[in-house]
Amino acid sequence: MSLISIFLIGLGLAMDSFAVSLTVGMNTRKKDKWKMALKASIFFGVFQGVMPFLGWAIGISFADYIEKIDHWIAFILLVLIGGKMIFEAIKEDDTTEKVDKGYSNKRFLILAIATSIDALAVGISFAFLKVNILSAISIIAIITFIICMIGVYVGKVLCKIFGSKAEIIGGVILIIIGIKILIEHSFM
Fold it and tell me: What is the rounded CA–CA span in Å between residue 78 and residue 27?
């Protein structure tokens, strides 16, 4: 497999992480923007790199099992987190000052797993194609890191446009990503 192909796969895998990074940017205080951008980029970049390696290591042994449930795991995690974001945003009283809850390591971990499950399946295909796994996962992780860093900053700009509705929009985006993953898997 060529480096261009791996680069394009990396871009494709990073798109869900980019969308989540937008929501991080929309829901982060200005003073925490750099910290959250770095945190999101590290979590998503590492998981987008580790999951193909795990898939590659698993190889064909468990391919059928993983492909049967990966979309459901991602869907459930994204809908739960997105729904929680929407619920919390609606629940807040407009007269009270909004407290920035930030993104905990636990939340980032769940989001990183949910957005990188498809990378596990890609790793399985890498085993069949005899891809240089270290080069592939390095490229994928770096691309995801950069794209997520950009995503948080773009999300911060969007927050200025959407204001207090940013958390609701972020939750809706996560739910849409979950539904997209479920639909894409149904038509494969």
Answer: 16
In angstroms, the CA 171 to CA 16 distance is 13
Determine the Cα–Cα distance for residues 93 and 78; give it in Å rounded to an integer.
Answer: 25
- Residue 67 amino acid letter: E
Q: Of the segments 49-58, 99-108, 137-146, which one has the largest average pLDDT value?
A: 137-146
Q: Residue 76 gets which letter from DSSP?
A: H
Rg (CA), the chain: 17
Residues 6+ apart with CB under 8 A from 39: 103, 108
C-beta of residue 178 within 8 angstroms of C-beta of residue 77: yes
Q: Is the whole model's pTM more than 0.85, yes or no? A: no
CB 17, CB 144: distance < 8 Å: yes
Over 60: is that where the pLDDT of 11 sits?
A: yes
